[in-house]
Amino acid sequence: MEPNATRHERAPSQLIGGWEAGLVSLLVLLYLGGAIVNPAFFGSAEAFHALLRDTSRVAIIAVGMTFVIVNKDLDLSVGSTYGLIAVVFARLFASNVLDLNVLTAIILCLTLGVVIGLANGLLVTVLKVPAFIATLTVLFIGRGFVLALTHGQAIYYPGKAKEYPLFFHLGETNVFGFNNQIAIFAVVAVIGALVLAKTRWGYETFATGGNEQAAVYAGIPTNWVRIRAYLISSLCATLAGLMSAAQDKGVTPLYGVSGELTVIAAVIIGGASILGGRGRVAGSCLGALLVVLLDKVLREGWPITRTVKIGDEEITVNAIFSLPVGAVPVFLGFLLVIAVLIEPHLIRRQVATRFWAWICGKPPPPAYEIGGVALEGVQTKGAMATDTAMSTTTFGRFVGRRDSLAIILAVLLWFTGVALRPDYWWNLSNSFAILLNYTELALIAIGLTYVIAAGDIDLSVGSVLALSGSTAAYFLKVLGADPFTAIAMGLLAGMAAGLVNAVVTVGFKLPAFIATLGMYYIARGLAAWFVAGQQLAGWPEDYNLLGRKVNDILLHFGLSLPSGVMRSVAEVVSVQTIWMFFVALMAGAVLAFTPFGMKVCATGGNIRAAAYAGIDTNRVRFIALMLAALCAAMAGIINVAYFRSFNPVAGQFRELDAIASVIIGGGSIFGGYGTMIGALAGAAVITLVRALMQLNVQGFTMPQHWINVFIGLILIVAVLIDIWVRQANILAHVLARLARMRRGKEIAHG
């Protein structure tokens, strides 16, 4: 063979390979480490059996997620689907609720799983909603349903379960000495591995994820392939939910919380590429085992001895050292980000293989192709151009603006409140109480407008709010710091989170939604960690002035306004509202009237064209993500002052509200457009919707959990309006058709 002859490389196996062998070695070392640290737990056969049992459910969901990620998509809804299925089964089956038989309950749960999978698939493929937005919204809606259906309480049915031993034996140990869930997992894993590696379905999945356009040219129905993957993912989550219901003979509202993070981390650690076109079921299952093992090592802690003094006698007692509350989500968030970084920087570059070839003096293998943006959606189509007048009239020009819908909706919702409860709505103090709730959301939406206009997304703003508030509360209550130090440290913590988001997104070229999804869990975990999962309260009133009315601040400094309009306004207007409008004014002026604002929209509209035009797009995106974190941090500082306490759940669902606010306000989910007036109006719409749904009308008030479901639906509708009314410009096409029809009639009658 001639030296310059072409070498034919053998195609890598789609069933198992060297990466899986490395995972097995790592698992063995990790388990041995756990056995050394905590031999009482990890040194027993029961612990290993429990590890395999608990891994079974996660791994089954990971099998379905592998199809989705190889497809170059993402499914953030699997955790809430898992929890929702278990809750629905409990309500259908439990004798104190609907009291149906087990077969009927299973069939209805499977039907629900199919509906969720179809909804995800159709939203992403037919309706062109970005996968992370579609499945994130389904996640929040599903979580709202879980909390609403359980009313925050556990549902158990051990007595009735005895009547159906065949089904409930699935969660128990069989005659061979191992749990039946392990056997179910083995069957699902083998079937999934063979389908992905050896069938046409698998070939179509790899082709679609590797290059969707080329797959279309090859005659592959890529839309159906992607829908099919979401169906498989949802059905795997459904099966896991039913297995959990069989094992526990009950359900709690916490089922499935953070499940999507664990599953995605497992699939990525297993060697799948977030860029699509690469992944193996065997690797995903081993990744699930690794993640569950890490979780157990962290949660179980390790034995220690403590000396307790009783009177004059010192007694040595055995104890277990456990990590603080919130530490596990922090670790899993870091694990997700690191796992996503491993694939493009180590696996695709074949660092280990190249190093071994260098050691052996052999030529290095060719690197995999690196490129593309994960989960790339529809690009903005004339976002700026669509902001044109529909006519020469003033009203026509207003209606033609992208943010006009939010302004009109805000006005209509306000008058709806007046019509429903004029006694409440016309009260000045009540009106400004609504404005206080609006302030926090509006402040977050200000920063998020820059991020979305620049073509990115930040899913961590609610958690950054909690992190900043937790830091300030910790310095005030635990360390006894002065208010200025507490504010500075809270802002610093929020900016540090924003810096991590920006560095990982811009510096390491990760999709923003993955980087900020990791920070979503990291910041929320740190917030709980700092306060040990408890609510803190009781600090100097000087700090609380940030959340007080203007008149309260004047009285604090010994000043008193005379009776009149000024005093009435000062008694209801809060300093945080004034600060929010000041920030909005500056941010709006920069976005609308400065070169940097034009660079933000240019970057989001077409990042490659913007780079060719000499714009430093990395710098623009970096600043936008930092600004979003700063605004969220300011909201967290004010939240602590307003409530005079800190609760670890602060800022929950705020990322959903903020994204909906920006999109309702005319911002494009694909980047390239955004106005501060629109974002503020969108925030007003969300705030008024929440206020109206919480309004007591003739003794009826909607529970909070159902409100979150409704807000999720609003976000989906807002995104669909952006795609099909604004981006596709359907309204202009309809008006043009009506104009042609009118001209045709005039010619016919002429």
Automatic annotation (TrEMBL):
Keywords: Cell inner membrane, Cell membrane, Membrane, Plasmid, Transmembrane, Transmembrane helix, Transport
Transmembrane segments: 22-42, 54-70, 76-93, 100-119, 131-157, 178-197, 253-275, 319-342, 404-420, 432-453, 459-476, 483-504, 510-532, 576-601, 622-643, 663-693, 705-725
InterPro entries cross-referenced by the UniProt entry: ABC_transp_permease (IPR001851)
Record's bilayer topology term: Multi-pass membrane protein
Location within or outside the cell: Cell membrane
Any one GO MF annotation of this record: transmembrane transporter activity
Main location, first listed in the record: membrane
GO cellular component annotations of the record: plasma membrane
Keyword Membrane applies: yes
Known role: Part of the ABC transporter complex LsrABCD involved in autoinducer 2 (AI-2) import. Probably responsible for the translocation of the substrate across the membrane.
Subunit structure: The complex is composed of two ATP-binding proteins (LsrA), two transmembrane proteins (LsrC and LsrD) and a solute-binding protein (LsrB).
Official protein name in the record: Autoinducer 2 import system permease protein LsrC
